[in-house]
Amino acid sequence: MTIDPRRALVLFSGGQDSTACLAWALTHFAHVETIGFDYGQRHLVELECRLHVRSALHARFPHWAERLGDDHLLDLALLGQISDTALTDVRAIEMNAQGLPNTFVPGRNLLFFTFAAAVAYRRGLKVLVGGMCETDFSGYPDCRDNTLKALQVALSLGMDAPMAIETPLMWMDKAQTWALTDQLGGKALTELIVEHTHTCYLGERTQRHAWGFGCGLCPACDLRRKGYRSWLAS
Residue 104 belongs to a domain with what CATH number? Predict the structure, then answer.
């Protein structure tokens, strides 16, 4: 495969989707950095997991290690302070009056990409990579392809420099995401995702399932479990 000489920045939470995107970026780009955000999320354990994932990727995949650059963690506590959601406050997960799950944090991905673009501009990174998806996206409007295409234009104009947004999972369901990581890194990457990534909205890391750790009941766990089973059955 021909390696794209551009430098990329992956929005990396430490979850399954962002890990798949990181593996994808390391396969395609000459230099890849990561960025994470602490915004007061209930599943704060993901910030710990992301470091374990990076370390494991570096140790187990030497052909990627030389391309894996610096990590950046930004404090976006203000986002958690102005949000009123089940992702930033202890409450039951349910649908709201607008038909969206109350785990939706308004403006989250828009802010993530904007701050990521500012870091990327300073470091000479031309591509932003995110794990947004319209197939298994719970209806979040900031995960839609049209939203991110519009944001790419706005960021490029606002920075007065080309800033590409890549979303390799946009049209994949969770089974296809499991298949993608198996294709990119085989059994070693699948095991890494099962053991080290975190998806559960409740931050549960004591219950171990075949597909990884989590409560097994929240929407994120439900998607991950169903996707894993579907991938194994395919």
Answer: 3.40.50.620
